[in-house]
Each structure stands twice: as structure tokens, then as C-alpha cells.
Amino acid sequence: MKLLALDTSTEACSAALFIDGEIRQRFEITPKAHTKLLLPMIDSLLAEAQLTLSQLDALAFGCGPGSFTGVRIATGVVQGLAFGADLPVVPVSTLAALAQNLLPTLAFVATDARIGEIFWGVYQRNADGFVELIGKEAVLPVEYIEFPQQSALGIGSGWRVYKDELLARTKGLVSDIESDVLPQSSTIAELGVYGFKQGLAVAAEYAQPVYLRDKVAQTELERAQIKCNRTE
Description:
The chain is α/β, with parallel strands linked by helices. Helices cover 35% and strands 29% of the residues.
């Protein structure tokens, strides 16, 4: 199995090449240079492995949620590569990528979505050793997050920006926090290979970014109704 993965959803820019279980990665924290660095990273990895795109089985990318511009960059590049080499693409959640390498049994993943909201997802480890989403990913204020009443690890930048609010909301369920981690394409490669084997690869035109905000943002009236129902 040979798969190329990339991610530009945060201030980190990375690309990774999975070759039969071995992963090689290029990774830099560079908030405003993703477009300059990503293609050279990809070229370097392929040259080092003496491979061409057409020799790969698939591509994978961090599809979001994350930076609007960053997620668009990764989407555009992966679509271009996939169309050119006629390769399938595996979209990988950036929240899942954060959870994969740190997950004990349960993780509350929160990343800063700006304007007083977080990207939120609850993950557990499945029988194959990979993350599995519980419920749905969402973008919302801390006070409206939903989670199981179980001990969990807090992961992501949201736990740095909204630490006090999240700890108060989860009421003692979270004792350990990993707030300074960023998605890496090496993990996206692992999840991409797993997703490929699970039949989750799509054609290039269906490799779309996930913003969440457009899909699940609620009106103030809807949020007020939820709050009212919870107090009844």
C-alpha cells in the first residue's frame, strides 16, 4: 500500500508518504507559507522514495475542520493531484487526527474555531486500534457541547483558549489535557490507509472540505430553546 497524505488545516504544513507500513514526513509550523511549502514537500518525498504519483494507490488529506483558507489549500492540492494521476482520495477529519496518537480510551477534542466557538468531537478507540467518532463533530460555544459521562483526555487548542469554561462544563471528567498538539500528515496517512481499506475513498471531485460552521451552526433562538429544554 502506497499513500500520500497532506494537511494544511492549522498553522502547521505537512506531507507524509506511507509505503507498506513505513511513514516518511515533512512538517513545518509556518502559518502563512503553506502554498509555498506543500508542493516542494510532496516532490521531496516522492523523489526520496523514487516514486511517481501514478505509482501510488491513493491520496489522503486533512479535510477539516480547521482554518478556512488552510483547509481550502489542502483540498485544492489533493484534488489537482488526484485528477492528474487518476487516484482515489480519503478525506480524514483533523479532529480524528489529533485524537489518534493520544487517545487512551476516550477523548474530548476541542480546537479553537474563533468568534467564541470551538470545533468539537468525542472519540473512542475501536477494536482495530483506530479512533471512532461518538455522535457528530460540531462547531458551537462551549456551553452547548455534548459528551458522555465518562473520564476523558482533553485534546486540542480549544482546551488552551477555553480551559476554564471546558473544565467547568465537563465537571471533573477531564483531568489531563494535551492542548499544544497539531494535526500531522503522518497520522492522516495512517487514518487514510485505514479508511481506504474500509472503503471510504472517494473520487477527486468528491474530496471536499469540512467547515462544520455552515452545516451545524444554530441560530440564537435554537440555542435558547436547547438551553430551555435542558433546564426543564
